[in-house]
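Researcher: Next entry in the queue.
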Amino acid sequence: MIALLACTRAELRRLGHWPAFWIVLGVWQALNLVFAYVFNYLAYSSGESSRMSNGLPREQLLGQMLPSAVPEVFTQGMAMFGGALVLVLGALAVGSGFGWGTWKTAFTQGPPRAAVLGATMLALLLVVVALVCAVFVVDTGVAAVIAGSQGASPALPSLSRALLGIGAGIAILGMWTLLGALIGAVARGPALAVGLGLVWVLVVENLLRGVGSIFAPIRGVTDHLPGTAAGSLAGAMRTVAGSATPGVLDTLSGSQSVILLALYAAVFVIGTLWLFRRRDVA
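Model: Structure for this entry, 282 residues:
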């Protein structure tokens, strides 16, 4: 345990001094604000909400930009686009260690491999928790400014609703981050790992779901893919009608999604640890 904590502190310090780390997090925060608030506010102000923002009426569009809607809104982009970015982060954090010789150096300094690698994944999960909380706070602040400028209610979401949204965000992004770590271990390098991860998130799962919609035998598989679980949990947070954000689904219930995400996270962690214990990193 002492070795794990020491390695976690070292890993957090390494990530904090890594420019790519801040770029990925900054890009996700910027995309979240642009698609959740900037475009919606422009549509609301111009009265063109029928063309933008999934065709919501202006009153509902404004409601989606208020503080009370933050738990619902900020999880909608996590299933696909946010997930793709944190998957890149996980793949870079693990895959880069092969090319740089970081793993070989760390494994020869004394701590067991399980402690070193476990610290990396624990640090990544702590980053996810901090990221989700930071996005929630920023979104709430932006929503409060919009509510004040439009004379709308500045009421915050209930504590249970806020915790539910934060928990859903951590579950979704945490699963994608651990998948990125596993792909980084499989590919033994960042470039291939990032490419494979993005192709899976943005292309392969969507194609499989399209095939599953017309070929029933595949549907049982596509209904339980990682992206389906993530999208269904984000979909369980929705309270409005209309077209959903790409990647947001209603295939599984909220409880089913949480269980499936937890199982996937456990499989990804075990798979990554197994690969590092069985293979040489020289």
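Model: The mean pLDDT is 87.
Researcher: Noted, moving on.
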